[in-house]
Structures are given as C-alpha cells and as structure tokens.
Amino acid sequence: AQSVTQLDSHVSVSEGTPVLLRCNYSSSYSPSLFWYVQHPNKGLQLLLKYTSAATLVKGINGFEAEFKKSETSFHLTKPSAHMSDAAEYFCVLRGSQGNLIFGKGTKLSVKP
Amino acid sequence: GAGVSQSPSNKVTEKGKDVELRCDPISGHTALYWYRQSLGQGLEFLIYFQGNSAPDKSGLPSDRFSAERTGGSVSTLTIQRTQQEDSAVYLCASSLPLDRGRRETQYFGPGTRLLVL
C-alpha cells in the first residue's frame, strides 16, 4: 500500500531560524514525491518534486528536500524562516494511477 | 499563461439539492484530476481523466458523485442529493500527459468551497 505520513501536525519556529518538516512514505515501487504549500485561502502551489534524479532537491523560496530511501523519508528544510513562509505544507506521493496521495499536512507558524 | 480555473469559487446549497462544479484546465493538459479537501479527511483523490480513456473513478465516495469531461477540456463534477458531509473544498488539477514514469507535475486550481446547510 502507498501512504504518506507527516510526523508533525504543527511546527512553530522563530523568524530567521531553520525549518524542518518531516515526512515518511511507504511505496512498493520507486516513488515520485512532492511538497506542496497552501497559504490561507489560496490554492496549492508546488514547492519541489523528486522523480528519481538527484536525491537533494531544491525548490522555490529557498526550500529543499532530501530523499532518503533507507529511511523512507523526504523531509523539507529551509535554513532561515521568513514570516511569509507561514502556511500549511503537504508531503505528497504519486499513486500508481497518477493520482496524488496527500499527507495530513503540517501547519508552519513563524514568530517574529 | 492562464492557470487552472474553477467556478464557482463558493457555493452554498441546501441538503438534498444537486450541485455542479466546473474546472477549466490549463490549455494542452490532457490529464485532469478532482480532489476534495475537508477538515476530517484531509486531501482525497476523487477522479482522474486522461485524454479519451475511461476515467479512473476509484476515489469517488458514493454514487451521488459523478464527473464528466467534454471535448477533452472542461470538466464538471456533479454531486446529487447533497449531504452535510459533502461540505469541503473541491480542487481540480491538470497536467501534461503522464509519461511512462508518471512524473508530470499537477497544477491546482483555487478550488470551490462548498457548504451544504
């Protein structure tokens, strides 16, 4: 079975400090993994994607994620949080039919 | 260029009524998906269209839900005899044709917020 687990429903950081949003996946085949961001009352925006090329993937707005097969993880990081990063983040696995399987989401709060 | 558009942006209806939600995909995108985002269930896949192939309806929660895609472009999601648990944000996404590795990125519309009273 394919599934995605986001380990934290809510993460709070101070502006300028690092961000770590954790994600683990389960897949019986080589996965395609994504991180999407959703700002309040806005649509889903693709941050980055992993499709079996480089294991360290760089995305928009300074975010990056590292695919670790041995740990079945795809954690999202950013060296320095900005107030505008406050949003909900979804770790996503592509299913066998092309549909997306979403994690429950992690709400990121950024304190001034 | 224009992104995925959805209409209406908000819809309030009474329990038992039928509703139709519309999605206009990005031009040239032959793959189209419907998802639902609700408080209790998170984001769930509903249905998938790829070109002229039969749609993958495996995510539809009940036979009250159906979707069409006319001319390979615009899609309509219909919910018959709406129930309060249908209240959610309905999201549409489109992508280029899926390659063998199914790696194409899906681009999402802003969603339709449905409230069933």
Describe this structure in words.
- Chain A has 112 residues and is mainly beta.
- Chain A has one domain (3-111): Immunoglobulins (Immunoglobulin-like), CATH 2.60.40.10.
- In chain A, 0% of the residues lie in helices and 54% in strands.
- Chain A has no helices and 12 strands.
- Chain A starts with a strand and ends with a strand.
- The mean pLDDT of chain A is 93.
- The radius of gyration of chain B is 14 Å and the shape is globular.
- In chain B, strands 2, 4, 5, 8, 9 and 10 form a 6-stranded mixed sheet that branches. A 4-stranded antiparallel sheet of chain B has the order 1-3-7-6, with no helix packed on it.
- The relative contact order of chain B is 0.32.
- Classes of the chains: A mainly beta (112), B mainly beta (117).
- Chains A and B meet through strand 6 and strand 11 of A and strand 4, strand 5 and strand 9 of B.
Task: State the oligomer.
Answer: heterodimer
CATH superfamily grouping of chain A: Immunoglobulins
Rg for CA atoms of chain B: 14 Å
Provide mean pLDDT of chain B, rounded: 90
Mean pLDDT across all amino acids of chain A:
93
Using brief descriptors, characterize the structure shown.
heterodimer, A: 112 residues, mainly beta, Immunoglobulin-like, B: 117 residues, 6-stranded mixed β-sheet, 4-stranded antiparallel β-sheet
What would a concise description of this structure say?
The complex is a heterodimer of chains A (112) and B (117). Chain A has 112 residues and is mainly beta. Chain A contains no helices and 12 strands.
Reconstruct the topology from this structure:
The complex is a heterodimer of chains A (112) and B (117).
Chain A: E1 3-6, E2 10-14, E3 19-21, E4 23-26, E5 33-38, E6 44-50, E7 56-58, E8 64-68, E9 73-78, E10 87-94, E11 100-102, E12 106-111
Parallel strand pairs in A: 2-12
Antiparallel strand pairs in A: 1-4, 3-9, 5-6, 5-10, 7-8, 8-9, 10-11, 10-12
Chain B: E1 5-7, E2 10-13, E3 19-24, E4 31-38, E5 42-50, E6 65-69, E7 75-79, E8 88-95, E9 107-108, E10 112-116
